[in-house]
Amino acid sequence: xxxxxxxxxxxxxxxxxxxxxxxxxxxxxxxxxxxxxxxxxxxxxxxxxxxxxxxxxxxxxxxxxxxxxxxxxxxxxxxxxxxxxxxxxxxxxxxxxxxxxxxxxxxxxxxxxxxxxxxxxxxxxxxxxxxxxxxxxxxxxxxxxxxxxxxxxxx
Length: 155
What we know:
There is one protein chain. By secondary structure, the protein is mainly α. It has one domain. The protein is built from five helices and no strands. The chain is elongated. 15% of the residues are buried.
């Protein structure tokens, strides 16, 4: 009888673990979607923030706008940090799941890689300070990307 109770308890424990893991993944996914919506909100509020991307094709230019003002440079860096914080949360929590083939977290990694490719501001922030300020799993993903995509040195 005690063997049956032990087996049933083990089955319930495994089921609870699986459900808990699924709930955690779903909660993290929803947080990521909130981050993306916040980024969209910021871009709608100030279209000049498209300047975070080096290749802002199709974004209308404003002849009266000066992107080199200290206020805008600070705003652009803050917008870059919003992206980096989003990626750090999603990729630090999801790095183990990426290696297990979880498509949602692969999508976040691919989104991060695309941002690295398209934004010199993002790359410079990650390169300028001590990497110990960032989660080790997140910085590992960045360093792997950097090794695979070496940048030419300026003359």
